[in-house]
Design a protein that fits this description.
Distance between the termini of chain A: 61 Å
Shape of chain A: globular
Oligomer: heterodimer
Radius of gyration of chain B: 27 Å
CATH topology of the domain at 62-174 in chain B: Alpha-Beta Plaits
Strand content of chain A: under 5%
Structural class of chain A: mainly alpha
CATH architecture of the domain at 62-174 in chain B: 2-Layer Sandwich
Order of helices and strands of chain A: HHHEEHHHHHHHHH
Largest sheet of chain A: 2 strands, antiparallel
Number of helices of chain B: 6
Number of strands of chain B: 5
Chain lengths: 349, 182
């Protein structure tokens, strides 16, 4: 039997890559929960979890086991199909983002050039935006299907927050895209790596600041964790959830955090670029591995900053949130966009 | 209105400037404060392994005392039970018979002596009431237990080890800062 004219090896290669990236991001997310508790403890003069295993390193497994073995409850008045769909959607949307992130340049194995990126689509950043806005449906559907007024309120808050901050995020991004002239994350990173080019943060400090604030809001992290405001809404949109469904929601939040850190690293901090080092002089595989490590380091730093902010700043009030989003960040982003455009025009002429 | 204290502060009602309304300078300041806390020593005492030293006047678990010859001091007079505001103490008295002089100090002793640690409020009034210096509150905390019954401490739990016979147990029971001379 002849197979179709199709590069089957490419399929295998991509499947392996997908498996590695999905499991790696799940594993990192697992330890991000641990890191969150440790960072919180550090900032609050406590030791944090330290009983399970050396330095408490088995704590995430204990937490996971606890979540899995808990009783699965679906409220009688809940819309059952949607109730189950909610966490799945949140998790899927969170994991789908990782497909366009360039984890590193490429490796050469078995005479093949393997890109360390699942799909280098030319509208990578648009794709990310699309998927991230799908993630809001996870929150919305979960809150709606619970048939609980607090969950619904939280879901509404989550949706309105995500919509208002996505605008400013997109506007701040346009300035970066004007510099890069491409929507593909890989070419944006390559451009920053090119000789004579600085990282985009050097050209877009204001843009980065706006993007970062919006990323916090998109990940529902403090100070923008209104959908999970415990003291106002009991628990937020996942109030009726138990067991691993709840775990999925909590987990997807951490994966979102990792992915937005990765996107920020790619857009503003040179992705897998190692500063002051010319990667093209190294062997291809070494450069690729070093690149992965560089990107991971940047992600870890971002995650630390996320946590640092979480354990410093109290939650915004709803009107403050809307004021900051619509009246402050959007005008700033527009200004940034105009300024960038003007400078680019001035340089060209 | 005249201020009662000198701590009065005028609250500024000025509308926020643009930078202030972005909250960024204030947030950065706060982050600086929390960052400093990474390097501070944390005051945690890891409890079961590490124990906090109590002051000598701490009122913890009760101890039934013995005299220099290792005889029980308690004469079951019941004054501690009367003094107890939580009614946690019960006892039964018995008469000392011939040959028990080395066990009990006086002619009457407590055959049964129970303190319910769930009722006890650790006020130390029993210690005050005791005319024989037989009961005092030590520096240990009542440990957790799985049953209610486990919190009813009998004489075997309360009685201090005999200093002349069980030297090590006695040293442990008396605690690190020896405050009683007998």
């Amino acid at each position: 039997m002849t197979l179709l004219a199709f590069d089957w090896l490419l399929l295998i290669e991509k499947l392996i890559l997908i498996a590695i990236i999905v499991f790696a991001s799940l594993g990192i997310a697992l330890y991000t929960t641990f890191a969150e508790r440790k960072v919180a403890a550090l900032l609050q003069d406590r030791p944090g979890p330290e009983r399970a295993g050396p330095f408490g390193l088995f704590q995430p497994f204990a937490d996971g086991l606890k979540l899995i073995t808990k009783e699965e409850i679906i409220p009688g008045s809940a819309s059952k199909g949607l109730f189950i769909l909610g966490p799945g959607l949140a998790m899927t949307a969170a994991l789908m983002t990782c497909s366009v992130i360039p984890w590193s340049s490429h490796v050469e194995l078995f005479d093949r050039k393997i890109d360390l990126q699942i799909a280098d689509i030319n509208i990578g950043i648009l794709y990310i935006f699309g998927v991230v806005s799908l993630g809001v449906y996870g929150i919305m559907i979960g809150g709606w299907a619970s048939n609980n007024k607090f969950s619904l309120m939280a879901a509404l808050r989550g949706a309105s927050q995500a919509i208002s901050y996505e605008l400013a995020m997109g506007l701040s991004l346009i300035a970066v895209l004007m510099i890069a002239g491409s929507l593909s994350l890989k070419s944006i990173v390559d451009q920053q790596m090119a000789a004579g080019h600085l990282w985009n943060i050097a050209y877009q400090p204001l843009g980065f600041l706006i993007f970062f604030i919006c990323a916090l809001a998109e990940c529902n992290r403090t100070p923008f964790d209104l959908p999970e405001a415990e003291n106002e809404l009991n628990f937020g949109y996942h109030q009726e959830y138990s067991s691993m469904k709840l775990g999925f929601y909590l987990f997807s939040e951490y994966i979102n955090m990792i992915m937005s850190s990765a996107v920020m690293a790619c857009l503003f901090f040179g992705g897998y670029d190692i500063p002051f080092l010319d990667e093209s002089k190294l062997a291809v595989n070494t450069a690729a591995i070093l690149g992965v490590l560089a990107l991971l380091t940047k992600i870890v730093v971002f995650i630390f900053v996320f946590m640092w902010i979480r354990w410093t700043v109290p939650r915004f009030r709803y009107d403050q949130l809307m004021n900051v989003g619509w009246k402050k960040l959007i005008p700033l982003a527009l200004f940034n966009m105009l300024l960038t455009g003007a400078i680019i025009l001035w340089q060209q002429s | 209105m005249q201020a009662l204290t000198k701590r009065k502060k005028e609250v500024s009602r000025k509308p926020m400037s643009f930078m202030e309304s972005l909250y960024i300078p204030a947030i950065l300041k706060g982050m600086g404060i929390t960052f400093r806390h990474i390097f501070t020593k944390n005051p945690t005492i890891r409890y079961p392994e590490q124990k906090r030293p109590f002051s000598p006047v701490f009122r913890g678990l009760h101890v039934l005392n013995r005299d220099e010859a290792g005889r029980e001091r308690c004469t079951a007079c019941g004054l501690c039970a009367v003094a107890c505001p939580a009614e946690a103490i019960t006892m039964e008295a018995a008469e000392r018979v011939k040959g028990e002089e080395s066990k009990y100090r006086e002619e009457k002793y407590a055959a049964k002596y129970e303190i319910n640690m769930l009722r006890c409020i650790f006020c130390g009034l029993c210690e005050d009431a005791c005319p024989k210096d037989a009961i005092y509150l030590s520096e240990t905390v009542a440990p957790a237990n799985f049953t209610r019954k486990g919190f009813i401490y009998g004489k075997e739990d309360l009685l201090i080890p005999n200093r002349n016979v069980e030297l090590e147990e006695y040293a442990e029971a008396i605690g690190e800062s020896r405050r009683r001379k007998y």
